[in-house]
Amino acid sequence: MDKTEILRKIKEVEEKIDEEIKKTKEEANRRIFAAKEEARKIVEDAEKEAQKIYNEIVEKGKAEIEKERSEIKEKRLAEISELIREAEKKIDEAVEFVYNEFVRAIENA
Description:
The protein is mainly α and 109 residues long. It contains one helix and no strands.
């Protein structure tokens, strides 16, 4: 093998190596792109799931608050009704007391 033949073979090998490096870089870039795309999808799915869970928690909280508010309202209405009943019972006593005081004031006048 003469010098020219050896140099030609070296050049062929270098070209094959350059071509393999180019293919390897392209494959690496393709895989990186695919991995980034997959990661983006995973993050997007996770964000959707987090939003769904958040919405469920908020709705559950709203329902619990509404239930508690209704219970408090019912309790307070019952207390108010009881106070009104007690007050109505005492109206007759108060009227009678005022009447008796008025009569006594007139009699003693």
